[in-house]
Amino acid sequence: MQVEGGAADRYDVVIAGGGVGGMALGTRLARRGYRVVMVEKRPPPEFRLGESLDWEAPVYLKRLGHPVEQWPAQGKATVKRGAVCTSSAQPGVEAELGFHPVFRALMTLVGRAKPTLHANRELIDIDLIEGATRAGVTLIPGKVRKVERAGERASGILLEDGRRLEGRFYVDATGSVAMFRRAFGIADQPIGPRKVVVRARFPHAYDGMGTRIRTDDTLGSAAWMWDINVSDDVTDIGIVITEEDFVKLRRQYKSLAELFLHQVRKHRDLDWLPPLVTPDTPMWTCVFQCGTADASSGPNWIATGEAFVVVDGILSSGFTTALRTGFLASDIIGRALDAGASELSPKWRQIFHGKVTSHVRTIDGLVDVLWYGSRLREQYSLFLNVVSILFFNFNLNHLHTRYTPRTLVELRLLQAFHRGIDRFVRGYARVLTALARRANKKNPHLVPPGDVRQVVKLFEATSPNNLTT
After folding, report:
1. pLDDT tens digits, one per residue of 338-379
2. Mean pLDDT score of the chain, rounded to an integer?
3. How far apart are the C-alpha atoms of 199 and 196, rounded to whole Å?
4. Do domains 10-47+122-188+290-422 and 77-119+193-288 have the same CATH topology?
5. Over the stretch 155-182, which tens digit does the pLDDT of each residue have?
6. If you compute the radius of gyration of the chain from its CA atoms, what whole number of angstroms results?
């Protein structure tokens, strides 16, 4: 791995942050012979979210030259054949996604019949960064302290150790820190409530079924958990709760581990997990807010991934979104470099922002309307509620991997298409809810949330507290 620690220099492209989008962008531009430097405060291996890859992620990874088919045999990933969604309020009900013959037939028609992956990010990020450095990207381990600006242009980045880097073009790959957006005073448009993640890793054999999503309607807002085997015998489990509910639970429970266990005990198929949670179990936590930024670029800089759009984790699309934005941003910077221009094309900046934000607003809106809002699962099946979200999410991911507008007219048509989907989804939720209320329709599998809370309360009162022994 090439590591640079010398004096400041001038590059063609300076990338702040070593996220997936930045690594993809840097690799592609370095392969074309441009001088690219990347600054990352925590180079791989480092834990990052985004282990459940959708069907589009391997498309981009293969374009970068990574042999994703070999990763499971190398212990870097497991095979994800689909997903299984359950609910604490619907014991015994499993919504299996990706296994039905009709689903498989439809996937075959669009070239997505093969399973995708659960990635061990600590390991595959090593492959990504080594691929970037082999292509010629210079990696500087360090932290960006300040983005310097001259009007709307970036003029340099200053590192904590005092070094200063200059480039013809700059890339913000700093994730949710969004250093460039904040430096230029760009606002964002949040979608849905702020959420808190608490995750931990445990030994557990993989059943081969895919991602396990466990949902919970016993709090003020909907909550959920992921269960993703990053290897055949290790799983990552994370709980996702709205910030408002998290604050209330944090007052009740003395530690993150106890709060984590409270959510785990709502799911009967996780009865193997509580004995593994101890006071020494490492817990990782973060807060995130889905949404889009009002702008994603300037005359000589552009942002990728979570530096300007945040996708709800329940969609498993964040990793692909980072790759997609990295690829598109590399094309835009590459055009400017090839032409010897000092600024990015205004037309392509507009296409980049419009394409990405319209897509993310739609898929984040799906979750906000159909999961956190209407809760169709209370009247209809859990399967219908989940598939209603994933039908649009999967097909839109497929579309945006293959199609980028070439003109502003095409962009306007794409944006109108997304606005139509947004209106349809809101109408779909209203109509189904109204029909259910008119017919007094209830999901027959639904257990009152109070019953679930009572079971957990009794369990906590009668079980030995392994966190204090």
Report:
1. 999 999 999 999 999 999 999 999 999 999 999 999 889 999
2. 91
3. 10
4. no
5. 999 999 999 999 999 999 999 899 999 9
6. 23
pTM more than 0.90: yes
Q: Percent of the chain at pLDDT above 90?
A: 78
What are the structural domain ranges in the chain? 10-47+122-188+290-422, 77-119+193-288
Provide CATH code, domain 10-47+122-188+290-422: 3.50.50.60
Looking at per-residue pLDDT, the higher value among 17 and 109 belongs to 17
Fold of 77-119+193-288: D-Amino Acid Oxidase; Chain A, domain 2 (3.30.9)
